[in-house]
Design brief:
The complex is a heterodimer of chains A (about 80) and B (about 600). Chain A has two helices and six strands; from the N terminus they run ββαβββαβ. Chain A is of the alpha+beta class. β5 of chain A pairs antiparallel with β9 of chain B.
């Protein structure tokens, strides 16, 4: 099921499906590893309306709520052949 | 560059320790800290390789070479210029995959490919990775990449020798990269093994507390309070000791110079003008700074600052500013000029301007001593020197700093709703792993680089200023000294603001360096015929009250010290960074107007009571 990243709870892992941010931000996010098929997990949820942090490529990246809503992920993706590697 | 054997560039992701390697090899002192974006412009230094002089260039850290921000542009342009004879790509051992992505991008640069510029991959922070149970197969990396791969922990000297050896071996060679192709993701997956799956547990737990809803703010304020309390309590005794020591020389110097038949007038100028002020500057400024700066550097090295930025982002977002402004604000505590340069980590031009314009609203190094002095002298009568006294002083100082932070937020809000309208832009904030600071190095670095630098600046400007003021005070025009004419001119405005002409003039003369505001003020008072015996630090209090000071004067000066024009260095930096006189003027006017209005308001309010 495809969800916005904001729906992912603390400690949960998901796979990026689509990044809908505007161009510059999408490029920056891609540099950091927010690209389709990459696994990310939520490691830190601050105050309501504040930033949240995600573990991606083994680094912790903080993002604002509005940007988190622009990233769409898939939870428990069905294992599809050996295309992962 | 022709005189050098070779030029080596250091490239890599942000916060992987490039500057630490740079400092280790060149022996220079680039500022390092544990958060991404400390280096924003390329720095270069010399080092010798096998007896030949070489140049090492420290590039700002980049996630990629796609140029989204200024520092990425700096790095990209340098790598494309073809100036580098070799490139060391530094990579964090805990984040190998990201480093490999950058390596691949560098390898695909035309200038690197065509000239066959030799590359060295340096896997840094291996000690940290080892502690986290991360194992890296270096042989496999070497086999796949076909370039030298050096494992390194920049803090160990032996590894740096290995790195130099690798640079030496590839120097002057041309490498053919045509056959090199790899997938960073797959290569990282094959070479890096995580033996401990839960190594992030502890860090996540700490992060949850320091960015927690209530605990986050509480810890932030308590840490600030703790740092100030240690500073105040710890500085008390050495300050008195230094004071007694330095002032015991005064009489001896006088006697010695008299014995040498130096004219009386000159003795007065040198001993009671210049020396007295220097002694004051050293004994009052040195001890608190020698405690405060190492503590602040420790927090910086630990990696706590990005957590504050993370936690405070909500407030900055409401002011339509960038959360990274919190980091530049923290840099402003060290030096506002450095803070203004640091604003380059903010990508959006609108938000960068807001951060630049509001940077001098937090007190820098040079202004802390003034705050320390005013607080200890005027708000702690009776409890001075006791435990309660130092705690109260720390509380007041924390309040002053928080006032600066609140003013920063308020001004950001006003700016983004008037002059710099716009919606907040997107940004990413990396939270680096906590790193154990090297206490010894922190001590040496912060005392040598920061404390002595600030003190040196204060002394070198205070000494000539002392002489000028002494001359002004002793040159009479129309029956009155020039100094009195000057202070008399500023007096009406000063009084309106709850200060006096002397204080205002001291702030004006303190434009080159904020450190000398209090010394200039003291000198002026001393020259106005109010000579008091400088037997102990209480003499300072007597001197000030004799000149009509009350706690109201101190409070207004405290406010004006927090909010007035930035120092000359900061102004020049703002001009350079914004490239516009208009914005420089705005950066000067904003805090000045705020300070003047606040002072007049507070003065009026207190007078009404």
């Amino acid at each position: 099921m495809v969800l916005p990243l904001s729906k992912i709870d603390l400690g949960e892992t998901a796979k990026v499906v689509w990044v809908a941010s505007e161009k510059a931000m999408a490029a920056r996010l891609a540099d950091l590893g927010f690209i389709p098929d990459e696994e990310i997990s939520c490691v830190l949820k601050g105050r309501k309306g504040g930033m949240r942090a995600y573990l991606v490529r083994n680094a912790v990246i903080g993002l604002r709520e509005e940007n988190i809503n622009e990233i769409f992920v898939e939870v428990n993706p069905p294992r599809c052949s050996a295309s992962l590697q | 560059m022709d005189n050098y054997h070779m030029v080596v560039a250091l490239a890599g992701n942000p916060n992987v320790g490039k500057s630490t390697i740079f400092n280790g090899i060149t022996g220079l002192k680039q500022h390092t800290a544990n958060w991404p974006g400390v280096t924003v412009e390329a720095a270069s230094g010399e080092f010798t390789l096998d007896g030949k002089a070489c140049i090492l260039v420290d590039l700002p850290g980049t996630y990629s070479l796609n140029t989204h921000s200024k520092e990425e542009e700096v790095a990209r342009q340098y790598l494309c210029s073809g100036e580098a004879d070799a490139v060391v790509v530094v990579c964090d051992a805990t984040c190998v995959e990201r480093g490999l992505h950058l390596l691949k991008q560098i390898l695909s640069l035309e200038s690197v490919k065509e000239h066959g510029v030799p590359l060295v991959l340096c896997i840094n922070l291996c000690d940290e990775a080892g502690k986290k149970g991360i194992e890296i197969d270096f042989d496999l990396l070497k086999d796949v990449l076909q370039i030298p791969v050096v494992s390194c922990c920049a803090r160990c000297a032996g590894d740096l020798a290995q790195l130099k050896q690798a640079i030496l071996q590839c120097g002057g060679t041309r490498v053919n990269y045509d056959c090199l192709d790899f997938s960073p993701k797959r290569l990282a997956a094959e070479t890096v093994r995580y033996t401990r799956t839960n190594y992030r547990k502890q860090e996540e737990a700490i992060d949850r507390i320091v960015t927690g809803r209530f605990t986050g703010t509480l810890i932030m304020v308590l840490l600030l309070l703790g740092v100030f309390w240690l500073t105040m309590a710890g500085a008390n005794y050495p300050s008195t000791l230094l004071w007694n020591l330095l002032f015991s020389f005064e009489g001896k110097m006088d006697a010695l110079l008299t014995a040498l038949n130096v004219p009386r007038l000159l003795i007065q100028a040198l001993v009671y003008g210049v020396y007295r002020v220097l002694a004051w500057v050293v004994s009052v400024m040195l001890p608190p700074m020698a405690i405060f700066f190492p503590l602040f550097t420790l927090l910086e090295d630990l990696g706590y600052l990005p957590r504050i930025a993370f936690h405070m982002d909500r407030s900055f977002r409401r002011c339509r500013a960038c959360g990274k402004q919190c980091l530049t604000m923290a840099m402003g505590f060290g030096c506002n000029a450095a803070g203004v340069i640091g604003c380059r980590i903010i990508d959006s031009p609108r938000e960068r301007l807001i951060a630049i314009l509001t940077n001098s609203l937090v007190p820098c190094n040079g202004r802390f001593p003034t705050l320390f002095t005013l607080i200890t002298l005027f708000f702690l009568t009776g409890i001075q020197g006791s435990f309660a006294g130092s705690l109260a002083a720390a509380l007041l100082l924390t309040a002053a700093i928080l006032a600066g932070v609140i003013a920063t937020l308020a001004c950001s809000w006003v700016l983004s709703h008037t002059l710099l309208k716009g919606i907040p832009s997107a940004f990413t904030l990396e939270l680096p792993p906590y790193r154990r600071p090297q206490i010894g190095k922190v001590l040496v670095r912060s005392i040598l680089d920061r404390t002595l630098f600030v003190l040196g600046r204060a002394v070198s400007i205070a000494a000539p200023a002392g002489l000028i003021i002494w001359i002004l005070a002793n040159t009479a025009v129309r029956g009155q000294s020039v100094l009195l004419h000057l202070t008399g001119f500023f007096d009406p405005l000063g009084r309106l603001m709850g200060l006096d002409g002397v204080i205002l003039m001291a702030f004006l003369l303190g434009f080159p360096a904020n450190e000398i505001v209090v010394p200039i003020m003291l000198m002026t008072y001393l020259q106005s015929g109010m000579l008091v015996e400088m037997t102990d630090s209480a003499a300072l209090f007597t001197l000030l009250t004799a000149n009509g000071w009350t706690w109201k004067t101190a409070l207004c000066m405290l406010i004006f010290c927090l909010f007035h024009w930035p120092c000359s260095t900061t102004c020049l930096t703002i001009k350079k960074e914004t490239g516009s006189l208009k914005w420089t003027a705005a950066a000067i006017l904003l805090p000045t107007v705020l300070g003047v209005v606040l002072c007049i308001g507070v003065n009026a309010a207190v007078s009404c009571l």
